[in-house]
């Protein structure tokens, strides 16, 4: 007899998986542990996710979406005001969010950093979404003549890649260094010179 | 009775250490293994290097100097011709050298990638040297009016940081992706827009 007689929703499963992954860490978590929290058999869980890796990927993907992409989307889709200021706010928010999570949500961040290396397709999708947001800001800036005309898609990709040092998880170890703010400022000024 | 009655030179020790580190990998190498190759006691070796970590750091530091910094120095100190072309050649050489080593000299590259994380001071010195080379190129470009006037030190640092994705070892896993050449081209065009 299971607690859930209704079919499990994807979010219920991911909530339980996230909770267990945070508690035990990715290595020590088993699908059985997650099934236990949901009070279902692990067979039931396997009908929804074919492996622990698939569950971990889905948890990370949801976390990236709600914690990173959605808040940034609100900035990117803003209208009115300066596109340059919006671009700077978007980058600052991305960088601050990553740093905050690296420090305060270390389990999820470690899982994400790990996924970055192995789940290339999922990360490409996430990157693609963020670069599209940058493109939106850059296009607004071109329309308002704040930014010079150019290929907004290629420029958006370039801005994202050129700021990797400040938001890519494999640099997290360097974020604690004192010169980070000054370093970003020098990159920002250089990029802005190329955009305006 | 040791083979070397003359004092060991630093380079002799590092040659032996590099040979053993390549053969066994950093984890399995011991100072005793290195001493054996040199036919000295490990006590003799400890008089030169206080730990295996110190030896590994010295080997990596020498490798960075001879394989990366010296060839780039030859480009940076070149005179005549276009500073923009020199800047591009310098970046291309840095990126190609790193990629080549990641693929063809995997043991040294893995050791270097590891050192990047733990030996912050050594890596800062290496970075500082490379950024000084960039500064030299940028100053030449400002002198010849190819590049617009500005703070060459800050611009050199910005160019180095903004291209991290293409030369920092923690991105080595991404270098095999197909879009790398195109990605670098978009970053290069953006940076060039900021510099000229």
CATH superfamily of the largest domain in chain A: Tetracycline Repressor, domain 2
Task: Determine and state the CATH class of the largest domain in chain A.
Answer: Mainly Alpha
Shape of chain A: elongated
- Oligomeric state, counting identical vs distinct chains: homodimer
How helical, in percent, are the residues of chain A?
Answer: over 70%
Number of separate strands of chain A: 0
Order of helices and strands of chain A: HHHHHHHHHH
Roughly what is the average pLDDT of chain A, rounded to an integer? 91
Q: What would you say the CATH architecture of the largest domain in chain A is?
A: Orthogonal Bundle
What is the alpha-carbon Rg of chain A in Å? 20 Å
Question: How are the SSEs ordered, and which strands pair?
Answer:
The structure is a homodimer of 196-residue chains.
Chain A: H1 10-28, H2 31-38, H3 42-48, H4 52-76, H5 83-104, H6 106-118, H7 120-143, H8 152-162, H9 164-167, H10 180-195
Helix pairs in contact in A: 1-2, 1-4, 2-3, 4-5, 4-6, 4-7, 5-6, 5-7, 7-8
Question: What report would you give on this structure?
Answer:
Two copies of one chain form a homodimer. In chain A, helix 1 crosses helix 4, helix 5 packs across helix 6 and helix 7 crosses helix 8. Chain A has two domains: 50 residues, Orthogonal Bundle (Arc Repressor Mutant, subunit A); 143 residues, Orthogonal Bundle (Tetracycline Repressor, domain 2), CATH 1.10.357. Chain A is mainly alpha-helical and 196 residues long. Chain A has ten helices and no strands. The mean pLDDT of chain A is 91. Chains A and B meet through helix 8 and helix 10 of A and helix 8 and helix 10 of B.
């Amino acid at each position: 007899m299971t607690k859930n007689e209704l079919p499990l929703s994807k979010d219920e499963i991911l909530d339980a998986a996230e909770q267990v992954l945070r508690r035990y860490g990715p290595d020590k978590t088993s699908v059985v542990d997650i099934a236990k929290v949901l009070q279902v058999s692990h067979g039931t869980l396997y009908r929804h996710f074919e492996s622990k890796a698939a569950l971990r990927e889905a948890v990370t993907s949801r976390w990236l979406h709600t914690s990173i992409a959605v808040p940034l989307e609100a900035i990117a889709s803003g209208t009115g005001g300066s596109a340059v200021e919006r671009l700077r706010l978007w980058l600052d928010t991305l960088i601050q969010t990553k740093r905050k999570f690296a420090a305060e949500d270390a389990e999820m961040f470690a899982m994400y950093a790990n996924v970055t290396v192995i789940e290339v397709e999922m990360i490409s999708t996430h990157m693609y979404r963020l670069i599209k947001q940058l493109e939106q800001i850059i296009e607004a800036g071109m329309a308002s003549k704040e930014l010079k005309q150019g290929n907004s898609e290629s420029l958006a990709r370039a801005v994202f890649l050129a700021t990797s040092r400040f938001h890519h998880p494999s640099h997290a170890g360097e974020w604690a260094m004192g010169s980070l703010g000054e370093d970003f400022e020098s990159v920002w000024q250089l990029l802005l010179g190329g955009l305006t």
